Amino acid sequence: MRDDDAVRELMACRPQILVNNAGGGGHIPPHYPEASAAAWRALIDLNLIGPMHATQQALAPMRAAGGGTVVNVASTAGLGRAGYASPEYGAAKAGLIRFTTALADVAGVRVNCVVPDWVATERLSPADRSADPPPVPLEAVAAATLRLVRDDTLAGRVLVLGRGSAPRLLD
Q1: Cis peptide before 126, with omega less than 30 degrees from 0?
Q2: CA dihedral 130, 131, 136, 138 (to 10 degrees)
Q3: Calpha distance 119→24 (Å, rounded)
Q4: What DSSP designation does 90 have?
């Protein structure tokens, strides 16, 4: 996602659906204010600039094909007012959410966002896996993504997947 030429080459395949799911780094300390500016840039490049660039490169091929769909995958770290241990990650994910809503329906290409809370991946500790409420299952993220791909009425919408709660669309 950080290699502009590789992203450009990938989008030459003329996608009709783009899921920007690359991301990470919010769990790796040190965080602000100890983190270096270079560490901030790398995290923001991966979590915000990369999806923005991939979307930019996908727009023309999608339009040429008669339309398409982009689904960005953010994080609940980008929502709310509570403190967060990795503010650089939270800021990048908040930016991705706002990027999505700003585009909504850009000339026939729908742009949406899935915003999961902690997801049940292999990187979670045993304590995190058995937390109450439990982490969001990977299958729930996949199902939410498919919902946004298939539903033409949801352009620009943000679908939040909370732990232990039903999916909800942000107003």
Answers
A1: no
A2: -20
A3: 12
A4: H
Distance CA 3, CA 45 (A): 10
- List active site positions: 89
Tally of CA atoms within 13 A in the half-sphere of 23 that contains its CB: 27
Tens-digit pLDDT string for the chain (171 aa): 777 888 888 878 888 999 999 888 877 788 889 999 999 999 999 999 999 999 999 998 999 999 999 999 999 999 999 998 899 999 999 999 999 999 976 778 999 999 999 998 888 888 888 889 999 999 999 999 999 999 999 889 999 999 989 999 998
* Cα of 77 vs its chain's centroid, Å: 11
Single-letter amino acid, residue 67: G
Superfamily of domain 4-169: NAD(P)-binding Rossmann-like Domain (3.40.50.720)
The reported pTM is 0.92
Joined tokens for residue 20: 């920007």
**Cβ(47)–Cβ(53) below 8 Å:** no
Cα–Cα distance, 108 to 123 (Å, whole number): 37
